[in-house]
Amino acid sequence: MQLTVWTYEGPPHVGAMRIAAALTDVHYVLHAPQGDTYADLLFTMIERRDSRPPVTYTTFEARDLGGDTADLFKTAARESYERFRPAALLVGASCTAELIQDDPGGLAQTLGLPVPVVPLELPSYQRKELWGASETFYRLVRTLSAPARTEEAAPRAEAARRPTCNLLGPTALGFRHRDDVIEVTRLLDRLGIDVAVVAPQGASAADIARLGEADFNVVLYPEIARQAAAWLARAHGQPTVEVPPIGVGATRDFVRAVAAVAGVDPAPVLDAEAGSRLPWYARSVDSTYLTGKRVFVFGDATHAVAAARIARDELGFTVVGLGTYVREFAREVRAAAAEHGIEALITDDYLEVEARIAELQPELVLGSQMERHIAKRLGVPCAVISAPVHVQDFPARYAPQMGFEGANVIFDTWVHPLMMGLEEHLLGMFRDDPEFGDGRRPSHLAAVEPTDHAPAAAAVAPAPLPGAPGWSPEAEQELRKIPFFVRGKARRNTESFARDAGLTFITVETLYDAKAHFGR
Amino acid sequence: MSALPALPGDGCDAPVLRERGQREVFCGLTGILWLHRRIRDAFFLVVGSRTCAHLLQSAAGVMIFAEPRFATAIIEERDLAGLADLDEELDRVVGRLIERRPDIRLLFLVGSCPSEVIKLDLGRAASRLSTNFGHRPRVLSYSGSGIETTFTAGEDACLAALVPDMPAAAPDTAPRLLVAGSLADVVEDQFRRLFADLGIPVDVLPGRSGADLPAVGPATRLLLAQPYLGETARRLEARGARRLAAPFPLGAEGTTAWLAAAARAFSVPAARFEAVVTPGRDRARAAVARHRATLAGRSVFFFPDSQLEVPLARVLHSELGMTLTEVGTPYLHRAHLDADLRLLPGDVRLSEGQDVDRQLDRCRRDRPDLVVCGLGLANPLEAEGFATKWSIETVFTPIQGYEQAGDLAELFARPLNRRDRLEV
Ligand code: SF4
Ligand code: SF4
């Protein structure tokens, strides 16, 4: 048993729902009790979807157990087919149905429906949402994908035709998937490459069937599409490009990789004037203050690894922590962490993440909505880089994470929660002016958290921990001269320094010793 | 006592449409979201699956607290495969929890579909743990599973679990009123003032602390503040409490009749009753009247959600002049809803249970001006052109009593007002 307060991922059948809801004409019959319908509201409320997700819940009750739950499933499957007339039917069990072992796949086969039925085996007590999405997409592609054509029947490399690829991985409830697809499609177009099918988002069963026709596959989100792409590579001999173009460097890598596979020249895109503004913004003098800011990165593997690279190579931060909640991708994240000279945090326990952030005391947290809340409590600025998603992660405006425009969006969203460089100086200069007293917060903090910004005092003067060393009045006085927005950190650092040094009393000396100790 | 006002109405014998199919409702675990805020020293530990944890998190929405007083012990493969002893695992998880949260005085082990299906005996586990901890915290159990409970029925199960622990009232005590059902603090305080002014001694269930439970016995007069407490009422009645028949305290007239039921049981003189309720009732009538223009003559359709549907329909119909198309409820407790049902028009379409696709078909045929439904249906129906009111707001917003009657009306008027404003 695992004690859980908040979870990064839902159960695997929610992953299957994300695939079903992404597709245009596939229905999912889920053997589940009534309460599991809560998952619908993720789609209708968080994503503001204007239609119900295409899912029928069989709604068995206690009194049905040991009786006719199998019949209930068959009725639900038959009626859903008749009502929705999908081009394919996904069938499976939720955590409770898994325990009653009705075999939805077998039951659905007995109905003799005139469309493909894809049985899903998603072990709810071992696996989670992203695995469920990946497995569902893979099963669907395997079942629906047309048999490989012989070369004579469909010669692939006609000289006159632009190369084509599929974009694999975008789903319902994905972090900025909607805009990433647009951005990557534009980028590919500038390279002279056409997108054949985007899947699962917006694809029909017929589109899935023709995935094998493209020249190659682009995996945008490996957590969801790597498995399906590997199968397509085997079955149709399609090469795979798996270089998520998040950040300027990764986008350039992506351009080179697709150009190589497609046999086109990457130079026009790589050398174009209209790249990202990020490189110049990072070099402009106002960004000097970003140098060496200590960042903690946590998210799904793809976004976390990409964010760490951007943080270090494109903004000049220091990555002090890197982790993921996706155990299936622990290897990739460990490798990336090693490159940053740190140890990866692989956990889905939110309390562990919180403890690590508190211990590392970063100056910026890049994480999911969960880390946003942790950061808010600890008084550390935060930008969101990954699912699990929140209604705020579906902005009305165009806000991709991928491609050159994505890098622009990332520069803005990460730097905004931090103090602007010039402003940091001004605050320092005027800190003793009465008009500019401790009650003033940088205006951007209120802008980021309009609804629930913590009282400024919480971030400024945390209650001393039990057993914390005492402060001499002079040291307290000196502490007050430090700008209020870093004072909380100075206090914590000094106290932890004093504790480690076995001091019970903090003097002005201790304060400056600590500053020297922690200073860079 | 005949001078005390009773609500008129000659009953609604409309046939009830009972449906069986896909339901679009929460399970009883959801009740934890308000119960944990209500009983401030209680912790709710769901013994269930990742789905249950995800449900709580999704229904809690943006309200992510530092460490809420609820959590899920997620059953894993090794527990099911018999590699781990479930009792030992539970002891370990609860031990860790109590260590972290020594402030907890009352711990609920909350059953879920998976724990029910594998027949995990949480009642036995609760009494074992309670003894182990020397009753600090006291450990109780109930089921909030979706195979047994729908949304608010979780509160019923929780309160019913408290009843056996309530002390017995001495046989010769003077009658006391027991108000059962979670109310917002502000509403509870208003009612307490009114009962004090009426000279009626009152207890509430649940109280703000799980540690002090009111006594119950033959002198207890039970007044339900919520319509979904079938099992709780049954257990209280089994311990001697006498339930006072009343409509639920929604709207100006519902609140008056609810208070009057108590006044009658405690022989409050009619003049005193009038003097006590008149200021609040007048304010409530005026506040409700402000929304009549928006709502009167318009039609409303209720999808089943919280069991509050019948009393809400009564307010919308009799105090705000709305036309009822269908009033769906997950469970129709005829006895408890009797007074409210009497005030519904005879031709109303009542439905119990759900087949959501068929119900959506009926809704589209009825073309109501306002649809009251859950969060899974609201945006899709808006996209089809319907004005909707999220039913969950009627559970999380204080709507009972005189001072909230206007807010209640406004909840339903807002979606219609909003449509009038928007020009895009
Ligand atoms: S319906 Fe059952 S399995 Fe689903 S969340 Fe509720 S208790 Fe858990
Ligand atoms: S909003 Fe205020 S604090 Fe934020 S960047 Fe602009 S000037 Fe600076």
Task: Report on this structure.
The complex is a heterodimer of chains A (520) and B (424). Chain A has 520 residues and is α/β, with parallel strands linked by helices. Chain A has helices at residues 12-22, 40-46, 69-84, 95-100, 104-110, 129-144, 177-190, 205-209, 222-236, 248-262, 267-270, 278-283, 301-314, 330-339, 350-360, 369-378, 403-415, 421-430, 443-448, 456-460, 473-480, 484-500, 508-518, and strands at 2-4, 26-31, 55-57, 88-93, 117-119, 164-168, 194-199, 216-219, 240-241, 294-299, 318-324, 345-346, 364-367, 382-384, 470-471, 505-506. In chain A, the strands form 4 sheets. A 5-stranded parallel sheet of chain A has the order 12-11-10-13-14, sandwiched between helices. A 4-stranded parallel sheet of chain A has the order 3-2-4-5, with helices on both faces. In chain A, helix 14 (330-339) links the parallel strand 11 (318-324) and strand 12 (345-346). Chain A starts with a strand and ends with a helix. The model of chain A is unreliable at 437-464 (pLDDT under 50). By secondary structure, chain B is of the alpha/beta class. Chain B contains 18 helices and 14 strands. Chain B has helices spanning 32-38, 50-60, 77-80, 86-100, 113-117, 122-132, 153-162, 185-198, 230-238, 251-265, 270-289, 292-295, 309-319, 334-341, 356-366, 375-383, 393-396, 405-421, and strands at 16-20, 42-48, 70-74, 106-111, 138-143, 176-180, 202-205, 220-224, 242-243, 299-302, 323-329, 349-354, 370-373, 388-390. Chain B has a 6-stranded parallel sheet with strand order 1-12-11-10-13-14, with helices on both faces. A 4-stranded parallel sheet of chain B has the order 3-2-4-5, with helices on both faces. Chain B has a 4-stranded parallel sheet with strand order 7-6-8-9, sandwiched between helices. In chain B, strand 8, helix 9 and strand 9 (242-243) form a beta-alpha-beta unit. In chain B, helix 11 (270-289) packs parallel to helix 18 (405-421). The longest helix of chain B has 20 residues, at 270-289. The termini of chain B are far apart. The model of chain B has no long low-confidence stretch (mean pLDDT 94). Chains A and B meet through strand 1, helix 2, helix 3, helix 4 and helix 16 of A and helix 2, strand 3, helix 3, helix 4 and helix 5 of B. One iron/sulfur cluster sits between chains B (27, 29, 48-49, 51-52, 55, 112-113, 145-146) and A (33, 35-36, 95-96).
